[in-house]
Amino acid sequence: MIRVCLSALFAIALAAGTLKGAATLDIYFIDVEGGQSTLMVTPAGETVLIDAGYGARNGRDPDRIMATIHAAGADHIDYFLATHFHPDHVGGVPELASRIPINTFIDYGSPMGTDRMATGSFRTYEESRRRGQHLMPQPGDHLPFKGVEAEVVSAAGVLVSKPLRGGGQPNSACATLEEQDEDGTENFRSIGVRFTFGAFKFVDLGDLSGNTLGMLVCPINLVGEASVYLVSHHGNYDTDVPAVLAALKPQVAIMNNGLTKGGAPTAFVNLHRQPGLELWQMHASRNDGAQNAEDFFIANVDDGASAYWIKLRANDDGRFTMFNSRTGFVKQYLPKARAPRPLENNAK
Question: Which of 66, 128, 305, 328 has a CA 20 to 30 Å removed from the CA of 135?
Fold first, then answer.
């Protein structure tokens, strides 16, 4: 009984915001029905919002983002990072910017003229961007966030040229890598970032997919390993690249899928096959053949009426905790086991 009560109290404290005196990295995964919106509160107290879901739809996604921002105890956004300019990633920005201050916008500049989805949503996004500071990072750059290291691994279709610290290993799973047709949209230009807080690492690659996604880890792993991986492009068929999971070796993968958007059956198969990996989902998928995670790992299970979030709280020793705001389910994860150091050669 005591154990149950303590778990309940911990869940309440975890949901309520940052624990007093605890220097943690908090990440909220917000349900925007198959787009992306991820709120980070760094150990220094800075707020970083990655993408803002859809616009219109009666303000649905800005409402959901604002509710999460309030739950985190924030009243402004220090940095808004647009992974790319599709409407399910930046469509919510204009209304959001009318409701809360956004100090600095981070993106790769402007979209390709051939992607009409991106050029349309970019026009309204750009109007909001003019009212703040603007940063255009290149692969290999470090973003100026306080309390967490943020390294750009991809931007505007260009990948980092040399491995990040902890990367550089040959990837034997590249033998299974298959050539994929490019979708011709902005997805391959997504800004991808590896966030590091001590021994904890979180990787968000936006909508990178297909060949571009594979090149990050083949023939060598440029990114290194991760504690948590936000499954790229909502778990669509073009993110079904086993070599990525083999390289990152995440303990947790989070799929920001919707009812039918993303969540391809093949993506589920390979996520469930990865040793030591647990899958969390923003939505139960209704796609034929979808192998959804167990109920307590899924934030939303209805037809889109609810908007529960998943919260992650990380410590710098690599420990982290996941919290499902729908069920109250809490799970703590221990630090990843470190590879043993090679023995020194003391032979004379």
Answer: 66
Distances (CA, A) of 155 to 41, 82, 152, 159, 278: 23, 11, 7, 7, 28
Which residues on adjacent β-strands are paired with residue 195?
150, 202
Tokens for 72, please give them.
């985190």
CA 116 – CA 309 distance, rounded (Å): 31
Answer whether 227's CB lies under 8 Å from 191's CB.
no
* Residue from 287, 293, 289 nearest 258 by CA: 287
Low-confidence ranges of the chain (pLDDT < 50): 1-6, 9, 19-21, 339-348
325, 28 Cβ separation under 8 angstroms: no
Q: In the structure encoding, which two tokens stand for residue 12, read together?
A: 């309440």
Largest CA distance in the chain: 75
Q: Which residues contact 342 (CB under 8 A, 6 or more apart)?
A: none
Measure the CA–CA gap between 98 and 239, rounded to whole angstroms.
Answer: 34
CB 1: neighbour CB atoms within 10 A? 5
Q: What is the DSSP letter of 318?
A: S
For residues 184 and 182, give the distance between their C-alpha atoms in angstroms, rounded to a whole number. Answer: 6
Task: Identify the CA nearest to 159 among candidates 186, 193, 136, 125.
Answer: 193
**Extents of the domains making up the chain:** 24-333
E strand intervals along the chain: 25-29, 38-41, 47-50, 77-81, 102-106, 133-135, 142-143, 149-155, 158-159, 192-197, 200-204, 228-230, 252-255, 278-283, 298-300, 310-314, 320-324, 330-333
Peptide bond into 170 cis (omega under 30): no
The three-point CA angle 317-76-16 to 5° equals 50
- Residue 193 forms beta bridges with which residues? 152, 204
- Tokens 């799929």 correspond to 255
Number of H helices, E strands in the chain: 8, 18
Task: Identify the bridge partners of residue 181 per DSSP, sorted by sequence position.
Answer: none
Give CATH for domain 24-333.
3.60.15.10
